[in-house]
Amino acid sequence: MRQPIVGAIGLLWVVFIPLPVSADSVKVKDARFPTSFEANGRIYTLIGHGLFEYMIWDACAGAYYQAADTPQPSPQTAVPRHLELEYFHAIEAGDFAEATRDKVRETLYRGEDRALANALFGIWLGEEPLNAGFRDALLGR
Hints:
The chain has a six-stranded antiparallel sheet with strand order 2-1-8-7-6-5. The termini are far apart. It is built from three helices and eight strands; from the N terminus they run ββββββββααα. Helix 1 (about 95-110) crosses helix 2. By secondary structure, the chain is α+β, with helices and mostly antiparallel strands. Strand 1 and strand 2 (about 15) form a beta hairpin.
């Protein structure tokens, strides 16, 4: 059974929010993402969505959102943003944690003073993401 991982990450805060699927949604394989949603009194709009493929497998689908008043993709800034990933295969927690730690180390420990939220978004949406094509789809490029 698929295990969706849903998370909202903003400037130095992490909150897990289940997002409702509405009539206004996009579909990526078997995953559906709303085109907008409300959280913490703010409206978020879909910037882009895509499929992350690893070798020969469809690993996960994703959708990237920003606050409605920030229409340009700005995943590495302080704008309110949300990244949702739905995995199609079970992932061992240890493997997920190790991959996250390794990628965060690459961005956090180069002497740059970035917030943890930016590092986490950088895994998927930064200059050197896990997959550039997936990043570009999430950013609507």
